[in-house]
Amino acid sequence: MTDKQRKYIESLIKKVFRNADSQGEILSRLDRVKISSHQASVMIHALKLECNIGRSVPAYMLMANNLNSKMDEFFSILGYDE
Asked: Which of 21, 27, 37, 74 could be a cystine partner for 46, CB 3.0 to 4.6 Å?
């Protein structure tokens, strides 16, 4: 992962995860996991989708469904599926 990708991912994480504890946990995992450039692109895509969904979908639908299946890949890259 390039420095540019990392900074962009960090900024998107801060937009998507508004809780400071969640941000801290995810950012610490980002430090521990070796991420390829391709995986970083997948993470950026997932986070951008999540930002767009958050802006365009009513809040009650966000709570009811996992509208962004790409976030599963995001969490998998960070090692949450282990």
From this structure: 74
At a CB cut-off of 8 Å and minimum separation 6, what does 70 contact? 42, 45, 46, 49, 50
Cβ within 8 Å of residue 14, ≥6 positions away: 23
Structure confidence by residue, pLDDT tens digits, 17-51: 888 998 999 999 999 999 999 999 999 999 998 88
User: Which of 54, 57, 63, 51 lies closest to 9 in space, CA to CA?
Assistant: 51
DSSP symbols for the chain: --HHHHHHHHHHHHHH--SHHHHHHHHHHHHHS---HHHHHHHHHHHHHHHHHHHHS-HHHHHH----THHHHHHHHTTTT-
Q: Is the pTM of this model over 0.85?
A: no
Which residue has tokens 């996991």?
33
